[in-house]
Amino acid sequence: MRELSAEARLHLYARNISRKSGTGIHTAALYSAFAVIAAIVFGTLSVHPF
After folding, report:
1. How far apart (Å, rounded) are the C-alpha atoms in residues 15 and 38?
2. What pLDDT is stored for residue 12 in this prediction?
3. Predicted TM-score (pTM) of this structure
């Protein structure tokens, strides 16, 4: 197996870190979207306009 330069190793490490943090951000955004939808649905169920 060929040796990677320090710059190449750093680049691969940075890509792995950004991929993991990107996945975490997407997961948090998905859960927060569900929480907002649930808050709207349950909030409108408790209001009786008539």
Report:
1. 35
2. 81
3. 0.52
